[in-house]
Please model this.
Amino acid sequence: MLNALKFFNRVLVTLTLCLGWQGVSQAQKLPSIQLQAGLYKIAAEVAATEQARQLGLMHRNYLPPDDGMLFVFENRGTHCFWMRNTKIPLAIAFLADDGKIVNIIEMKAMTEDNHCPSQPVRFALEMNQGWFAKKGLSTGNAISGIPSGFIKN
Model:
């Protein structure tokens, strides 16, 4: 009986340590807004701080079909993205201030390749890989619903 208790105690300590370390690399959950791409609704978490943008969709195992993440930057720039610690393949649409798609790039999971906009932008929208193509969206189509507080003139 004593050996069984020792074994159980060791298992419990091991699980606690493992779960504690998992917390260091957990996925973030940010407030969401509703965006629209033609007829399609998007539930987009908003990454508007440096810390939120750096973590992005890292460490997630799943992204619901019409969910995504809107990255908001203070200034227009050539904001490049990579897929470090991102377990799911994604597509990214770089957006002009008016919401029009500047370019779309399909990104492989767990890579460190740079994915950059073709012109300076303040917004980027990440969705599941192939989402934009499946919806027939491409350069020039608009994403609406970006709050006016995020848009600078």
